[in-house]
Design brief:
single chain; Jelly Rolls; de novo design (two linked rop proteins); 3 domains; 22 strands
Length: about 650
Amino acid sequence: MATVRGRLQVIGTASAILAASACSSDDARTEQFPTQPQGVSQLAGFPPGWIGGTQKPDQYELGRDLEIVRGGRSSAYLRSRSADITSESFIALTQLIRADRFRGHRVRLSGYLKVSGITGPGAGLWLRGDSPGRTKLDNMDTRRRVGTEDWRLAEVVVDMPADAIGIAFGALLTGPGIAWIDDLRLEVVGPEVPVTPVYDSPNGSDSAALAANYGRTGLDPVNMDFEGLIGAETEAATVEWFRSKSFEFATDDPTAGDADLEPLRTMIGGAGLVALGEATHGTRQFFRMKHRVFSYLVRHLGFTHFGIEASLPEALAVDRYVQTGLGDPISLVRGMHFWTWSTEEVVALVQWMRQWNAAGNQPRVHFTGFDMQHPGVAIDSVVTFTIAINRTLGDSVYAAYGCLAPFRNVGTKSPDFSGYFQLDRAQQDACRARVNSVDSLFANRYSAWAAIAGVERTDLMQRLARLVSQWEDHARPSGGSRDRYMAENAAWWRSRPGVAGTMLWAHNGHISRYPFAMGSHLAAQYGADYVNVAQTFSAGFFNAVHQLPSGSLGALMAHNVSGAWPASIETLFDATGMQRAIFDARVIPNGGPIGESLRRRLTIRTIGAVFAPLASPAIYQAQVVLPDDYDLVIWFRDTGSSRLLASSSVGLSTSSIAP
């Protein structure tokens, strides 16, 4: 059981949780599960206030049961989808809270378990206290429930450390079978209650990381009986309030007029850095809305720069077209490496930018990229630049970058992250020293080179050299964060002379203020000057690479989800009766039933460039804390797939699904 124990030490943290919810309608559910799960009766989606985690999303599911209950109207269940599951596979039901009221006390988690057909290690409750550097955990490792058994009380008791920052708890199922959970209770108990067997081990987390992770959670557990978070009266009042604070816009068509977007003027205010996200990388409405919002920002708020989650040097070629009309926009968009952007919608935006500039309109607009995953063009550009100034120094730069030659991308060839990752530490350290020497060369000779080549070009080449260093660091086993580097590059663009407002395009996960996301770095640097806008949807089609049950990647294709999920912001939007809307999360009250319902108890849909249609729907909902994570949310009731350029569906590589 050591492997499962180790996983539970991290399950529930920001980096490990598979946040979960489930479809409430039978139609939505049968899209994922064509047959009624054996042994589970009437189902009712995912328990609000809880999250789920599993490393085998195609082998497990969890949710609420309306018939098999110990008390009240519902219980929670954990279920394997087949008997052919290894004893190391598991699924966990999880809730996280801050430790403030339990710190330094003996804490008991108790509740009732019912099991059926469990032949593996079994089902149990688990309770964990997280302190800087250490974790205390009891997951009933030696006393799990197996076989078939009616409701019976289970409990775990842990002495919470005096420096505990957060508490995670819930239930788990290891191996095959079904387990039901009901009527949980988390409480402080006296010294007369004996502790249960506890694992005390290092967790690798410092206080800042734990504080950031648990800072998004509440002080008290919720929905311990799986009956729901709030009553019907409060729910109706919340929907009515939410409807009154949202505004419905007419269309995502970027050629439409601007009248229905006028509320954005007040919402954005004086912010100069606006990030628009997307719940999937393949939704037409998200892409068209970004085009529409950018053109609004240009015309009415004087924005000058657009930035996309794509390779910085390759995006320069797109901007050359935007400025001069030279080149083929379709080929240039394809040249940014990611299939996600090789769409008619992105090409339409690029063409609009060119037409705006060609007509002599002001302000003049620019196209930029801020990603760092493809260093090839950057390497070649820096070498060419330095050779033109000083052949000897240029040759030394070429030699310094030689250690990356086997791993860099060439043209459409993908960079070899895994190859560099697998080098021994000494080789990586030696390569890092050589690559960083180019950064030092620019720092020491900047003034002289700027006098020869000009400040603007020297600045750009220095940034490209920095991008190569970013790639080298990111490709190492304990390398730097891609999100941090994307934020650094976006901030560099923001600091350039002549830049007024900037709009960024990336996934919701990147633009969020969630700890360690790109948006968290930008928010820390720019404060109120940074406004981020999530985009999501309730139902519809989108493009994504098909992930097979084996975990391997199949074809790029259109997928579909057929409805919103309980306790999600999509469900809340659905209840308003609107078709598409924008909500300013900054108006959510700090207290009261409405504030409590909206601030910390919602999920939001999140799908990247890969989608597993047979996986549990739980993995495609993530907890969202409003307005901490997002200032604004744009929602569509129904969506369609982005329109891929002709060659986008072939020749996919691992890196081409990286966004």
